[in-house]
Write a structure and sequence with these properties.
By secondary structure, the chain is of the alpha/beta class. The chain contains 17 helices and 15 strands. The chain has a 15-stranded mixed β-sheet that branches. The structure holds zinc ion.
Length: 430
């Protein structure tokens, strides 16, 4: 038998490419040759997820795309349609064991470890950092302050910063402000942590800010982004009161606002619609059917609205509270609709008249539906009845009639954890 030859560089590189990020860190410590080859194996890796805490990949997957507009089920559908594009939404990541570095599995995170991470992942431009309760924020600060990453990071997302102490917050924000090439910042900020000024807003193209309190961030926006006309601001919040104090010249930068759907009852939706005409996405809940006319008229001011999520309850309609006069205002720009609907009669679907009110709709997603007259209810978890003759009979006369322009395969029903297209349900029943 011939003596076994040692592996070539290329063979080792292909082995290293099959290792997880944590294993690569270990491998690079074995010898200086390994260190060079691990680096070579990662020279095309642009995107890295660093996680501190949660080991469950499924939970991580939820939080990693949390900010993303494309994580909305109806927007996923829209994205899949050839030729459909929507501008400027934060990055999404296909997450696997191979692009996560897990800090909690490292024995020690010292200066040498930071140096090693930046050296191995030398081409990274997109960094997503997921922490629980602000653990390892100090490591993030060191990574961002490293001269290599400081110059090259273009996208940064930081998620899970609750209970951040003020000293760490005071170090993290300056570290972010120092990222000279940064274009997208997605920051999940605990409402009880102090946030200092963000001069970086002057250079960004996209900022996503998620917090229960917006006021300090909005003042920072006013100070730094007045001349940055290309900035798109996504606010994941329900602090409408603060948002309505934003100075007028900046209104057009706000393209997305929402958290849990807003409630229509408090008069803030009409104000939002009249002041923030650049909104591309809005989520509203709790509409009494008698106010649908007013809602559509408010929404018709938003000429860039692509994604609309709302719920209507027709069960309150009676002689005293009749349906408002038709026609409803047209929402020409809406392409992705998420709807929660409670009807007492199928004719209420015709009253909504989506083919005319939303003529350009491409996809419909129903996450709650109740037809009182047929006793059919979707969204409570039990999905076994969905393709049964009584349920399908009701859907055919109501839901599936919502918009003939939307194909059955892009008509999605969510029941508990499961999603079905109308097309699948119809096929199952045959
Ligand atoms: Zn029905």
């Amino acid at each position: 038998m011939p003596p076994r030859r040692p592996p070539t560089d290329l063979e080792l590189i292909s082995v290293f490419k099959m290792l997880t990020a944590n294993e690569q860190l270990v491998a690079s410590k074995m010898s200086s040759r390994c260190a060079i080859l691990v680096r070579a194996a990662n020279r095309r890796v642009k995107r890295l997820v660093i996680s501190s805490g949660n080991d469950d990949l499924r939970t991580l997957k939820d939080s990693i795309n949390y900010y993303s507009f494309a994580s909305k089920p109806s927007m996923q559908q829209l994205k899949a349609i050839p030729g459909e594009t929507f501008p400027d939404y934060p990055m999404t990541t296909h997450l696997s064991e191979w692009n996560i570095l897990r800090l909690n599995q490292l024995r020690l995170i010292d200066t040498a470890t930071i140096e090693q991470i930046v050296t191995i992942f030398s081409a990274v431009t997109d960094l997503k950092f997921i922490t629980i309760g602000s653990r390892h924020i100090d490591a993030l600060v060191s990574l961002l302050q490293h001269p290599n990453w400081q110059r090259q990071l273009t996208n940064l997302m930081v998620e899970g910063t609750y209970r951040m102490d003020s000293q760490l917050a005071g170090e993290l924000i300056p570290a972010i402000n120092g990222l000279t090439a940064l274009q997208l910042l997605a920051l999940d900020w605990d409402s009880y942590s102090k946030i200092s000024d963000l001069p970086i807003l002057a250079q960004l193209k996209t900022v996503v800010f998620s917090s229960n309190r917006l006021s300090t961030f909005l003042r920072s926006l006013e100070r730094n982004a007045a001349d940055n006309v290309h900035l798109a601001v996504h606010l994941i919040s329900y602090d409408t009161k603060a948002l309505l104090t934003l100075s007028q010249p900046l209104h057009s930068r706000i393209v997305r606002y929402g958290w849990d759907p807003l409630y229509y009852t408090n008069d803030q939706v009409p104000l939002l619609c009249s002041q923030f005409r650049s909104l591309t996405s809005l989520e509203i809940n709790g509409i009494e059917s008698t106010k649908v006319g007013q809602l559509f008229s408010d929404l018709s001011q938003l000429h860039q609205l692509i994604h609309l999520s709302f719920g209507v309850d027709f069960s309150e309609v009676n002689d005293e509270f009749p349906l408002p006069a038709l026609p409803l205002a047209q929402l020409n720009s809406v392409r992705a609709l998420e709807l929660r609907l409670e009807i007492t009669s199928h004719s209420q679907i015709e009253w909504l008249n989506l083919p005319s009110t939303m003529p350009n709709l491409k996809t419909i997603y129903i996450d709650r539906f109740r037809c009182v007259s047929c006793k059919v209810e979707v969204g409570r978890g039990d999905s076994s009845f969905l393709s049964s003759p009584p349920a399908l009979g009701c859907f055919r006369l109501s839901l599936f009639n919502l918009h003939p322009g939307v194909p059955m395969k892009r008509f999605i029903l969510q029941s508990g954890e499961e999603r079905f297209s109308a097309e699948e349900l119809l096929l199952q029943s045959q």
